[in-house]
Write a structure and sequence with these properties.
Shape: globular
Radius of gyration: 25 Å
CATH topology of the largest domain: Rossmann fold
Strand order of the largest sheet: 4-3-7-2-8-1-9-10-11
Number of strands: 11
Number of domains: 3
InterPro entries: P-loop_NTPase (IPR027417)
Strand content: 5-15%
Helix content: 40-55%
Number of helices: 21
Protein name: Dynamin family protein
Largest sheet: 9 strands, mixed
């Protein structure tokens, strides 16, 4: 690798050298060309989790529309890809047929496509194209349910996620037990010196915490913070977010008629209404104090769930005097805003690095699985890129800081994490200053941090791991100063 070559240039050059090396192997050449094309495509984010973890609901909440799931595919082993497109369309891919366009219709519960004629297990992927701004920078992948790890500690669904996705949202009820073991297998799957696929853990049924009490979402956020402080959990993910996808989606798509029905319920005195909200069946079939058609009640339950109906009527009573106000409050309380911020901070903002990581992992797998003339030299180049690229050094340091391998005290570890991009890769986020800070203020904070961390990097009393970690922080500070010198903010 040429000294000073940018990471994207180095990876692009490696892929072309690999293409030359495997020019007589049609299958390998096609694989490498897909990796080249992938560098220019939107970031791939997989949404995975066990059965009934709310994958499609969270995906819809992120998109702001009810598109998922494709009916008839849930749990069938089909990966469904959601990409931006000029108009709704869907294409089926299988192991035995050429790609086939599917008839598309929008249903009340998601996308409806014509799957007549496909045998069970025959479909491998469905690519859905949907016109939305939410998919301009990312492609979302709705995966089949993830089972617990097998006797070898592997999950077939996650094995494919690790090959095809650049980042992972892992949905779980509590982030413990088999889910935690699955995520530990993701961390251990890192190829060569690369960091593993980055993960944000989502407590996706947060409205069910504490028996569905009205303060369940607040309790869920407290649980998420405690989870993130757990060394075993923190070691496998970049962040832990509590998010009720159902409420977040309701906040994006609630209609005026939905609001009118909720406002009608909210006019009933709270003690009187609560007796009818003890169970979904009682709300759906019982005699309410107000005239509300059973179909309307069923729609509210479908849209909000029982907890959401309780919360929404309370919010209407306490100031949600319009559909817009209620929707904003539902989104705020759902945790959707925090989830979207995490997606952008930890994934989208590091797009080029994560794309490069995926390409290097794919090339290394090919070189090791099918060695040939020149492959040893290419493997050396892969290792050189992984070891030399500062972006990967930052990712590895973030991972080491999460499981306390470095040995910094809590305050130093927090500062190091922030400076290497743990809170976002922007100048202000890295330096921990206000977003509208002046260039002079940014320069002073960056120069001060550089000087302090250089002292640590050169301190012979510190352990070697600490000095090397400090060197990475120093290099990050140098990058910040260089960016400021070039006129960055």
């Amino acid at each position: 690798m040429t000294v000073g070559l940018r990471l994207d240039e180095a990876v692009w050059g490696l892929l072309h050298r690999a293409l030359e090396c495997y020019r007589d192997d049609a299958r390998a050449t096609a694989h490498l060309r897909r990796q080249l094309a992938r560098l220019e495509q939107p970031l791939r984010i997989a949404i995975a989790g066990p059965w009934r973890s709310g994958r499609s609901t969270v995906l819809n909440a992120l998109m702001g529309e009810e598109v998922a799931p494709v009916e008839g595919t849930d749990g069938s082993g089909v990966f469904t890809w959601y990409e931006n497109g000029a108009q709704p369309a869907a294409t089926a891919y299988s192991t035995s047929h050429p790609p086939q366009q599917l008839a598309v219709a929008k249903s009340a519960t998601g996308m409806r496509v014509d799957l007549v004629g496909w045998r069970a297990g025959e479909l491998r992927d469905i690519v859905v194209r949907w016109p939305t701004r939410a998919l301009r920078q990312i492609t979302l992948i709705d995966t089949p349910p993830v089972g617990g790890p097998d006797e070898h500690g592997r999950s077939p669904v996650l094995d494919r996620v690790l090959r095809d996705a650049d980042a992972l949202l892992y949905l779980t009820r509590d982030g413990r037990g088999s889910d935690l073991r699955v995520l530990e297998s993701v961390r251990e799957s890192a190829v060569g010196q690369a960091a593993p696929v980055p993960v944000v853990l989502v407590l996706s049924r947060s409205d069910e915490v504490g028996g569905g009490r009205i303060d369940a979402l607040l309790t869920a956020r407290q649980v998420a913070r405690r989870q993130h402080r757990d060394p075993r959990v923190d070691a496998v993910c970049l962040n832990v977010v509590a998010c009720s996808g159902l409420l977040g989606l309701a906040g994006r798509v609630l209609s005026e008629s939905d609001y009118a029905a909720l406002a009608q319920l909210a006019r009933v005195p709270r003690p009187e209404l609560e007796a009818h909200l003890l169970s979904a069946d009682r709300f759906r079939r019982g005699e309410l104090p107000v005239a509300l058609d059973p179909e309307v009640r069923a729609t509210l339950l479908e849209r909000l769930g029982l907890f959401g109906v309780r919360l929404a009527t309370t919010l209407v009573r306490t100031g949600g005097d319009s559909r817009v106000a209620l929707c904003a409050e539902l989104i705020r309380r759902s945790g959707l805003t925090e989830l979207r911020e995490s997606v952008h901070r930890f994934f989208v903002d590091r797009r080029d690095t994560l794309k490069a990581r995926s390409a290097l992992a794919a090339v290394e797998v090919l070189l090791r699985a099918e060695p040939g003339p020149g492959s040893a030299e290419l493997l050396g180049t892969v290792e050189q890129i992984l070891a030399g690229a500062h972006e990967f050094q930052e990712l590895r340091l973030l991972a080491a800081l999460r499981d306390t391998r470095i040995g910094f005290d809590a305050e130093l570890a927090e500062e190091a994490r922030r400076l290497v991009g743990g809170d976002g890769v922007g100048l202000a986020a890295r330096l921990g200053v206000e977003h509208d800070a002046t260039v002079q203020r940014l320069w002073e904070v960056a120069a001060d941090a550089q000087a302090r961390w250089r002292e640590r990097a050169e301190d012979p009393v510190l352990r070697l791991a600490q000095r090397r970690g400090a060197e990475v922080v120093v290099r990050s500070c140098e990058g910040l100063l260089a960016e400021l010198a070039e006129g960055g903010r």
